[in-house]
Fold this sequence. Notes:
Elements: H1 2-18, H2 21-28, E1 29-32, E2 35-38, E3 41-44, E4 51-56, H3 60-71, E5 77-83, E6 93-98, H4 105-118, E7 126-131, H5 135-138, H6 148-161, H7 165-173, H8 183-187, E8 191-197, H9 220-229, H10 238-248, E9 266-272, H11 274-287, E10 291-299, H12 303-320, E11 325-331, H13 345-357, E12 363-369, E13 381-385, H14 388-394, H15 399-404, H16 408-414, E14 418-419, E15 430-436
Parallel strand pairs: 4-5, 4-7, 5-6, 7-8, 8-9, 10-11
Antiparallel strand pairs: 1-2, 2-3, 11-15, 12-13, 12-15, 13-14
Amino acid sequence: MSNLRNHAQMILHRALAAVDPAALFRANVRVEGTKLHICDLSLDLSALGKIVVIGTGKGTAPMAQAAEEILGDRITAGAITVKYGHGLPLKTIRVIEAGHPVIDQAGLDGTAEILDLLRDLREDDLVLALITGGGSALLELPAEGITLKDLQATTKALLACGAEIAEINALRKHLSRVKGGQLLRAASPARVVSLVVSDVIGDPPEAISSGPTAPDPTTFAQVRGIIEKYHLRDQLPASVIAHLDRGVRGEIPDTPQPGDPLFDRSALRIIGSNRILLEAAREAAQELGYGTLILTDRLRGEARDRGRQLAALLKQVRAASDHPVCLLAGGEPTVTFTSAGKGGRNQELALAAALELDGAAGCLLLSAGSDGTDGPTDAAGAWADGSTAARARDHGFDPRGHLDRHDAYPLFAAVDGLIVTGPTRTNVMDLVVMLGGK
Length: 438
């Protein structure tokens, strides 16, 4: 089993290296003479005025470092907002660390600083927007009448109810003055090119960090439907409900919709995703001698259900195979809290898997968040095998009770099952590695 554990960790590390934001930036941006190539775009540097670099998200600092490396003193100014502990030393681009997943005053101040950089730009200026997962909490200027406290209460309620990230972001966009394409209004008439690392299933640009430079297909009416779906009307601040109701009545303009002329001078390219993470994991597993299959890059639903199902599938595949096997899955399951334990979705998935694998030989499952953070803990996730539940009981833990209380962290800490990577400065959702040895 120690060999399986080492292999799972090797696969995880290879996968994370493949989605390093700096490496992704370097692969997609280069300067050749007077030409600036960004993905499939080619811009004449001699015709550009200012180059302003802005950004937000957990993995934005490495991208900004690569931007300074490639563009050097061509960068006029810049500012990015990142999660606390995710900053890196930069020369021209200022790094502002702020709260995540619940926004704080530092996030508001950092957003104001970014907006200051976008004032009075001209048509020949270029804004390079670096966007990675986590920006929904890190880039914010609330709509009139809504306070920071209101935003924090709203975010906490959304995270606790089990809403999917796209639903959470749809509501956030309609309480903001920068999300849902609205950041482009501040940069107009400058050209804006956005490089995006996706942390959302299916990679919809409008959902990644709440799409500050992307058209927003959601409306106030749809947001009201989300509130009703999760029975949140009585849990959200009165100012939030009042603002949404005004939007539904047409008293407040909706976010910029697809086809809005605002997007004529902008381009958005996705350069990193969960699929890239999975492909790198598959390559690593194959090099280690495993027959490997990617199951999905759209893993969603309750983490405990997915953990049980994936572990059951692993047992079946291992029993039917005469060689080592590796199954891979990526995505972002959710947890609907019924009590306040300590853990995260990856730890919950792994604990459910531990119960399903209880007593099974030669099977191991690792589940980790690519950003190095799983819930409000210092772990990225956890791993489980056929001995995990028994070892937990030997330490005085009831695995089923801890799963029911969403309290996986102390159990995995006791059995040396936590995965601790520290900040990875990337964010492309989660990776589940399932190994069956022979």
